Amino acid sequence: MRLAAIDRLDDTEQAILGTLAREDIDPRVRRAALTRLADVDTLGVIGRADADPQVKADAIGRLQAWASESDDLPLAGRAVAAIGDERPLAQIARMTKHEPVARAALDRLGDLKAVAGVARHAAHESVRLAALARVCDAADLEAIATHTDHKDVGLAALERLQDASAPLLDGIALRAKNKVISRRAKAIVKERAAAEAERRATQDAIARRGTLLCDAVDGLTRIRDAARVRAEVERLEETWREVAPQAPEELAQRFAAVVARARAHCDDLVRQEAMEAERRAALTEALTPRQRLIDAVATLDVADTGALTPVRAEWDALAPFEAPEVDALARDYASAVRAYEDRAAAHQRALDARAQIGALLTEAAAIVDQPDLDGARPQWNAAARRWRELAHDAPPDAATLEQYQQLDQRWRDRVAEARATAERSATEQLSGLLELQQRAEAVAAQTDAPLKDIERVLRDLRPAVEGVGALPKSDAAEALAQRLRHLLGELTPRARELRDTDEWRRWANAGIQEELCKRVEALRDLTDVSEVSRQLRDLRRQWKAVAIAPRDDADTLWARFKTAQDEAQVRVDAHTATVAVEQTENLAKKVALCEQAEGLAESTDWIPTAETLKRLQLEWQAVGPVPKDQANDLARRFRTACDTFFTRRKTDLAQRKDEWSKNLRQKEALCEKMEQLSESTDWTKTITEIKQLQAEWKTIGPVKRNKSEALWKRFRGACDKFFERYGHRHEIELQKRLGDREAVCTTLEELVPAPPIDGETAAAPPDDLIQRVEDAWRRWRNMPGSGSEALAPIRNRFETAIVTLLETYPQPFEGTRFDLDNTRNRMAALCEEVEGVLRGTIPTAQLGSSPVATLASLLKESLAANTIGGRVNEESKIRAAADRVRRAQHQWRDLGPLFGDEGRAFETRFHRACRRFFEQHPQFEEQRPPHRGGGGGRPHRPQGGRPENRQ
């Protein structure tokens, strides 16, 4: 009755609805009132304080829906403030479309794990970054960087992990979902490696530099200059002070040793240099007078023949001194004396040569000015040879040399000018003769060469044959002269024969010209101007054929013919002008029609264009004639334009019909595929296939207009249907899961007998009770997604059904996996076994149940320790322990259910022990079997490691 009363209440009765939702004793009534309640504060109170879990869940669900989906931001903010549960707040922070609402939900979160989840999944960047700022745990930061799809928060989390260990960064680089984050993690690892490599390189560089300094100091012992050694030692010590703070101790000791050796070497050099200085002083005293005498010999005047005598006397008086340098100066003195004597002899020869050069220049000037160049050539060559001899003995002064060079240049200019003149004259004459030869050969090659051309060539050939002899004697000149004489002999008789023939032709043409004059004069009587024009063209052609006439009558006949033809031409020109005007007008009309037709030839507007072209064809036929030289081209041009269009129209129509049919079939096939996919629940794969179908739809061409719109609506409707279902995919999946699980619960509940009426005996269990419960249990465990809050009621229903069956029929389930006492004992034993392995001890009671392989391994290790005296292989012990833990996991997976807090406590204890073992021995972690499901449908955390790092 209260439920019916709630349905009849108006929505404005919020106070009554709120009272019922808070205070009614029946949870169903409270839930019904809750669905009509619009007061945020009241919903918040119910969500925090109601005793029924489902009522609380409904209230929080409505607040969560307002916070996530409402466009009223104040209402959404109040809804967030009214929610007291961490989980819906985390979902709002992650999924709401309004950023302020998401920030408000985040601010209310206190669970750092939930805050980390918001940082990973929130839809708004500012919310993700704000959540990240509250995350401090390195493991949570690693999970965010590894599993987030958002680049911004992943990179920010990675930046906060820059000081983390290299394995952690390597793990992020390998497992990060976002490629940008993965690349950044790899870059950080590379930067660290580069910094480490740089540090090592710096140490290596210091060691190399120190070694080089030691080698450099050690190398100073090979230098013989004490000052240089001392300066280099000081410079290298200054450099060493830069290296010394970071140099190894053994390198510092080596440097000190080599510096000591270098300084000792420097002291030895100083002593040797002092002894060498004394020796050099004595040597200098012996070398100085000798060098002075050598220098004096070099400066003696070659004109003074007695200047060498006192120098020789002083050299002979010097005291002897044994030294290589003194011996070298003695050789230099002998060379200097010989050089002085040679200079004196050369000086005398120069005096004699200078006396002859003046007369030679006067003689050369006279030779250059001689008019007979060929006769003066031997004289000039003799004078030039004499000049070279005298100039070698006595190099002339600048004025004399310039005078001779001017005479030599004048001679060279005269010789070059004469040679150029002769070559130019011969070249020009030879070129002219060759050109004449070509003209003569061309005329001789013509069998019907005109008489005037032959006479012109003969006039040039006769003097040319005589002029060939003046050319320089050569084979080419001789061949040219022979060819010219041959051409002269060939053309002379031909010219004589043509002169005779020309006289006869002139005499015969005179009668023909007389007849042509009469015929052209007769044209005056014709009235048909077209016929006059035709006959006039024919008469002119005939006159050209007989144009040569006797010289006495030629001018008279031509004047008569020209007068008559000019009169006829006047009539023809007037008629031609009139016809030309008409044809020009017709030509312009037909050209315009051609241009219009050509402009329409490529048109795709088929029907109007066809009508236009038909009209243009009628206009073409109505236009008169055009000039004959353009008539055919214009007709062909117009016909080609028309044929192009009509051929294209015919081809296009056939192609479009085929294309429309083909496109129609393709689009209908796509519609069928899309309609099949619209009912799919394989969301990711279906979205990819729909995108492919949409892309394929765009590539298909058009269809007939009367079918295009219907096809598109059909295709689009199927797409919209799928995406509408996709938008509610979570509800669909949840409903499917609920339906499957409800079917299992229904199966179990059907096995629960009705309560016996007073006096009745309890119903006997079905024969296949165990099998049916086993099937229901297996189906329940194999169903996905048992951790959702929406599945909590159905999960409680399942547990209640099984517990009821176990309590109703305890005897059939004894000894089976549904024996609760047996399951409890086995769970406790397995927990103790794994915890014993973790502590390094194995309960003695369990040795009898060890596998054969484990017993054999332990026996083998014991024998080895006893007989060989060694200790048990630790790796083998750990491997045996890992086998025992994995066996315990497999046994745990096969256990039956144990519901309630007791079952959850056992599961938590067992999985914690397994996880701790594999965290201590991660080399065996990949071999672990999947954990046992079940537990009444409760979700289980994977053993070992963080859940975020598991696939």
Description:
Helix content is 77%, strand content 0%. The chain contains 35 helices and no strands. It has helices spanning 2-8, 14-23, 27-36, 40-49, 53-69, 73-82, 86-95, 99-108, 112-121, 125-134, 138-147, 151-160, 166-175, 179-219, 226-243, 249-298, 308-316, 324-368, 373-393, 398-445, 451-467, 475-521, 529-545, 554-600, 606-622, 628-677, 683-699, 705-727, 729-751, 769-782, 792-808, 820-839, 852-867, 874-893, 900-920. Among the domains are: 39-177, no CATH class; 199-272, no CATH class; 515-585; 819-951, no CATH class. Mean pLDDT is 78; it is low at 842-855, 867-872 and 926-951. It has 951 residues and is mainly α. Helix 18 (324-368) packs antiparallel against helix 19 (373-393). The longest helix is centred in the N-terminal third of the chain and has 50 residues, at 249-298.
Question: What kind of assembly state do the chains in view correspond to?
Answer: single chain
Task: Tell me the helix content.
Answer: over 70%
The parts where pLDDT drops under 50 for at least 5 residues are 842-855, 867-872, 926-951
Shape: flat
Compute the number of strand runs: 0
**Helix/strand-derived class?**
mainly alpha
Alpha-carbon distance between the two ends: 53 Å
Q: How big is the Rg? A: 64 Å
Q: How many separate helices?
A: 35
- Overall pLDDT level: 78
Main beta sheet, described? none
Proportion of residues in extended strands: under 5%
